[in-house]
Amino acid sequence: MKQLMLGNAAAARGLFEAGCEFISSYPGTPSTEITEEAARFKEIYCEWAPNEKVAMESAFGACLAGRRAFCGMKHVGLNVAADPLYTMSYTGVNAGLVIGVADDPGMHSSQNEQDSRHHAIASKVPMLEPSDADEARKFAAMAFEISEKFDTPVLYKMCTRVAHSQSITEPADRVVPEHKAYEKTISKYVMAPANAIKRHPFVEQRMKDLEKWSETSGVNRIEPLKQVQGDILGLPGNKVGIITSSTSYQYVKEVFGDSVSILKLGMVNPLPGDMIKKFAEGLEKLIVVEELDPIIETFVRGLGLKCEIHGKDMFPICGEFSQNLVAAAFGKDVHTGKKLDTAIPVRPPIMCAGCPHRGMFYALNKLKVTVFGDIGCYTLGSVAPLSAMDVTLCMGASFSGLHGWNKAGGADNEKKSVAVIGDSTFMHSGMTGLATIAYNQSNSTVIVLDNSITGMTGHQQNPTTGKNLYGAPAGRVDLEALARAMGINRVRVVDPYNIAECEAAVKEELEVSEPSLIISRRPCALLKEVKHNPPLVVDQDKCKSCKMCMKIGCPAISMKGGKAKIDPTLCVGCGVCSQMCKFGAL
Amino acid sequence: MVKNIMIVGVGGQGALLASKTLGQVLLDAGFDVKVSEVHGMSQRGGSVVTYVRYGDKVYSPIVDKGEADFIVSFELLEAARYTEFLKADGQIVVNTQKIDPMPVITGAAEYPEDLVGTMTKAGIKVDALDCLTLAEQAGTAKSVNIVLMGRLSKYMDFPVDAWMAAIEKLVKPQFLEMNKKAFMLGRGEE
User: Fold this and answer.
1) I need a surface site. Which of A100, A143, A407, A479 has the fewest CB within 10 A?
2) CA angle B61–B79–A343, rounded 5-degree value
3) What architecture does CATH give domain B3-187?
4) Cα separation of A549 and A537, whole Å?
5) What is the pTM of this model?
6) From the list B37, B41, B100, which residue is nearest A349 (CB)?
């Protein structure tokens, strides 16, 4: 039966249909739902790993055990997992191994806009790229077939507009291939130099074989021009061809329908040289429409074609595309609607009412310390009025960044700087930063903002929460014991709903002459099991309109008629604002 | 011919059920449908947009500027933010609820006065209604999304039964009656 399905749900469905039995992932927008949706199938074992490297290595182990395996991550997660990826390219697989990676053109929820196709090229691993939910489902099965046929891990690339768009697909039945027996093969799986030297030529030959396969397998297809509709770029329609993939293909089709020939790529590494040459025959202009970097374009330019080639001279490298952007690039008129003359204030994302991070960030703002931040909901601590963050780089960079800042700057920095990281991000890659602080002895004050969940990606469990992906009881990493075992002697826990306690703790730990860890502990206010207090009410007589309560940046508080007002539908009664009010109005 | 609907609002207002309901109605009517959502960071109280497109064949998953036949907005300022996306003869359906964005809360900006008037004067068709009151009348403030779908349904050519069938598929039995009532209140037929 036809269903409207989210791209990521269709990817999960495809993994299910292909007989995948093991998934280990780290959550990251826009990839998270692949694993969450796959976990609905009882036939697939799913888990959250502490980070993407661990996820990928676990999936590798599972494929050696003869079961089709998958790991999922966002684009920047693939950087973390690049180490196993580049050498798994050499070892190859036993049962199929597919690596899901989701790019985020336009940076809807990411710290950079990197193009993960570079990793596919550099690691010499094939990469499939679906353009809608139906392809997301079908390509998952194809990825496993390629993996086993060519003895390679396969990268399966999503992007925000494919991952988070629903389109129609028709699910098929699950077929589980026979488990592959493991055979001890030291020369293939032990990548010591002597063995790796012999595997490298295999990798090079495999890429050639894959290119040949991609020319004829149907993964890439030519959609010939069916109807001429005027000139394109000053030429008759049959003299122009477009090469495209993923969501860019959808925008091209939206603009041109069947009035231009299109080479639609489903496999973006390796690229089909002969197919492109054939496609270019008789064309005067060949246009490559691809988001982010000119990867297909660069390849096409190296083929020695006779026609003119265009790409990033017509399209931007930065940001995501749309049908209007594509139409305008081809010189077509685009009509937009009416823009109002009135200034419309922006509405950036904000910390929720009752967010346990708020109290700690207010304390840090008040103390005017330099804050090394990290990746998570709490990155919003950088937004006004809290503005309590100086640096945010990548997952886990807060503790290690502070360590270098303190070592280089000495006591001047040590007494006035802290680092903050969430519980999940700490487990991901913050631990090693704490290790360098303990080992190399910088006098650093670091804070784990422990809200007992992975928040930003929509509430996933992690090794500190005591629950597994399914919400069932699981092992639990004890943060305090871990820090002590690493050699941090000063470990203390504070309640971020208590501003004075946070402030006092930070002040005190900055004063002492050894590393300290503060755990700012309070579960995310959006967690179902968290009980809320009744909403607060402003005593209009006591309110002196001083606006002190506005300094915590709570979305539930606003000024109405010169007095503070609390929105009862948003307020969860956390009481942080009451601590701001000197007049007892809250 | 592809028709385009944008559902806009503030993260956490319940746009997901609205787009699911609409998507289900369109799917049941035999259309090709694409629905594009926003997840992750922008959901945290930020401005959020869902695109719904339907027709014989839909390619792009997103609605671009100048393309929307309808903008359904959960909040007044958000309707005003996206007018550029509306077609010349497009229709806005907006909940008159106001939620201050952070720059207004901090005093860095002001919430514009009389946005319905401003939009109407600009020649934009606006249907404004207090969905929160209607939702509360239906039994839960959370049914603003279905109130809005009820109002949108008046402008579309699908029978009430088709909408009710979609709501039945998507809403838990214990909330069904409330949501059906919310839908009819939105239509102005309760």
Assistant:
1) A407
2) 115
3) 3-Layer(aba) Sandwich (3.40)
4) 13
5) 0.96
6) B41
